[in-house]
Amino acid sequence: MKRGNLVSKATVYLVLVIFSLMILMPLIWLTTTAFKTKTEIFSNPFNILPGSPDFGNFKNAWSYAPFASYYLNTIITSFGLLAIQLVTITMAAYAFARLQFPGRDFFFILFLTQLMITPQSTILPNYLTISQMGLIDTRLGVMLPYFASAMGTFLMRQAFKSVPESLEDAGKLDGCNTFQLIWHVFLPIVRPSLIAFSIISVTYHWNEFLWPLLVTETSRSRTLTVGLTIFAQQAEGGAEWSLLMAATLIVIGPLLIAFTIFQKLFVQSFANSGMKG
Amino acid sequence: MRLSRKWRTYLLGYLLILPSFVFLIVFTYYPVVRSVWLSLFQKMAGGVTKFVGLANYEYMFGSRLFRQVMQNNLVYSLGSVIPAIILGLVFAILLNKRLKLRGAFRFSIFYPTMIPIAAASMVWIFLFSQSYGLLNKVLSLLGLSSNIDWLNTTPYAMLSIILVSVWKFAGYYMLLFLSGLQSIDESLYEAAVLEGANAWQKFRKITLPLLSPTTFFVTLMAIINSFQSVDQVYVMTRGGPYNTTNVLLYYIYQNGFVYWDTGIASSASVVLFSILLVFTFIYYFGLQHFVHYER
Questions:
Q1: Domain ranges, ordered by start, for chain B
Q2: Tens-place pLDDT, residues B55-94
Q3: Between helices A2-34 and B156-182, what is the axis angle to 10°?
Q4: Whether B122 contacts A232, CB under 8 Å
Q5: Interface of B with A in 90-149 (CB under 8 A)
Q6: CATH superfamily of domain region B63-294
Q7: Mean pLDDT of B274-285
Q8: Which residues contact A119 (CB under 8 A, 6 or more apart)?
Q9: CB within 8 Å of A114: residues ≥ 6 apart
């Protein structure tokens, strides 16, 4: 019995180590290549570690393309959008969770249809709308289709529903109006849900590609993922791999660092993002 | 004039959902209607549009390219969803135990979810590269054919796209399975051990049945995902070679934004909506089934 356990435990570790290394390989390759010089890549591809770490690729990548603007645009669009979403979803979720009004359930189901009609499937009509609004190549154009979030409303509604009635009554007795009630009573309690939604939303929009690719045209509004592919097209050919990998690391670095530090928080947020009623 | 309390609550409710609702109308509902409408028109020379009824659909369904696109999407969906779910489930079961380095394993398996697939595809292009890519080097070490031009030949291009998708999504599905596993009552396993059940029997008779709502949910989500992940196609193959990696959403992009054929792009969008609608219905009815099942 003891021995069987040991063998099965060893098998579990072996399988996990092999798969983890396979999944990690792109990240390892990316990181080490970014620190290699051009000649090192071609001389011995199996030499994983660079002779001496070379930061030149990062400096060059940063100066060849306007990554500073891309960064600024990405931060403004993902965090600006989050700020607006937090307001819209809190308002709607409070109404759906705590107020009685005719047609409430009908409107809630209508909200949820957004989960089905995904942003990717509406790129063409939304592009036409944004273009008619004169918002092509603006950060607002990148953000606008996402101002309302059914997923966020759903998550927050669940959270608001769990707030005990007695706390709400106590707030009312203290003379809170609805907005004070939401701010002072509800939001502090549902903070975990707010954080979970924030992590998912920022990750999604930091990583988004197709929509910003279509709406942006210059570094005035271009985000990191789009900027990276433009950079790659210019750095045509195999000779620029170390430069390209450095640029890729510049793009994915912040999220990767945040994920490494707050792994538990990220994992919990994403685990709860799957909606199971 | 003072509104009664009841009416004030009604009004407040509508006011609170109004901002979200306005944006939903403009960027979610109206686009569907507009797609249906635009699919009935054709752009003629000189920027004039002409009402053509269902001619766009007739043309599209009759074209060899569109049939190939649908076929590609089917191959891509099946090819990426099944392995990603199986791997996700296996990882979840392995990581659900008390293990050393659990955090490190979870990081390694889950991190692809965190990074943009457009950027990850850049690394994969490098790994897939014919003459100095890691993949061919490893194959040659194993004594296998090692001169594969992964992204430019059939069927390797589709295989590459599928591989990247499995790499990207398996970790996310693992996470969803993990939270499903954690809701299974530990005492069931203890009872099974007392009855002399082995690991396979425990998996077959306890884990799998009790996990079935999660499995159902993850599968549906994975299928829906597979109709909308197009970033890696754009970055790695641009639908090529010879349209063998051209999938439905890429076809919409191509017609809408490369050829500016709004009619065809809209018709294809309507097809995409219909597919999403069908799977949403399946999901909804499945959910009802599982709600009863659990009681």
A1: 63-294
A2: 999 999 999 999 999 999 999 999 999 999 999 999 999 9
A3: 130
A4: yes
A5: 90-91, 94-95, 97, 99, 103-120, 122-124, 126-127, 129, 131-132, 134, 137
A6: MetI-like (1.10.3720.10)
A7: 90
A8: A126, A145, A146, A211
A9: A148, A149, A150, A151, B24, B28
Cβ distance B112 to A23 less than 8 Å, yes or no, reads yes
Q: Read off the pLDDT of residues A117-148 as tens digits, 9 standing for 90 and up.
A: 888 889 999 999 999 999 999 999 999 999 99
Distance CA A32, CA B138 (A): 17
Q: Residue B186: is its pLDDT beyond 80?
A: yes
Domain ranges of chain A: 2-59, 65-234
Neighbouring C-alpha atoms within 13 Å toward the C-beta of A202: 21
Query: Tell me, what amino acid is at A62?
Result: W
Interface test with B, best of A120, A142, A172 (most B CBs within 10 A): A120
What CA–CA distance (Å, rounded) separates A222 from B118? 14
Name the residue among B149, B124, B153, B125 with its Cα closest to residue B136: B149
Please say if the pLDDT value at position A168 is more than 70: yes
| Nearest-Cα residue of chain B relative to residue A203 | B114
Q: Which residues in chain B are contacts of A15 at CB distance < 8 A?
A: 90, 94
Q: Give the Cβ contact number of residue B144 at 10 Å.
A: 10
- Chain B residue numbers with beta carbons less than 8 Å from the beta carbon of A114 are 24, 28
Interchain pair B17, A107: CB under 8 A: yes
Residue A251 with chain B: CB contacts under 8 Å: 116, 119
Bond from prior residue into B155 cis (ω within 30 degrees of 0): yes
The owner of tokens 């954690």 is: B182
Helix (H) or strand (E) holding B50: strand B49-51
**In this predicted complex, what is the ipTM?**
0.90
Determine the distance in angstroms separating the CA of A168 from the nearest CA of chain B, rounded to an integer: 15
What CATH class does A65-234 carry?
mainly alpha
Give the Cα separation of B104 and B100 in Å (integer).
9
Q: Is B58 left (phi over 0), alpha (psi -120 to 50) or beta?
A: alpha
Entry pTM = 0.91
- Tell me if B126 and A125 make a contact (CB, 8 A cut-off): no
Give the model's confidence band at A276: pLDDT under 50 very low, under 70 low, under 90 confident, else very high.
very low
Q: Torsions phi, psi of B197, nearest 5?
A: -75, 140
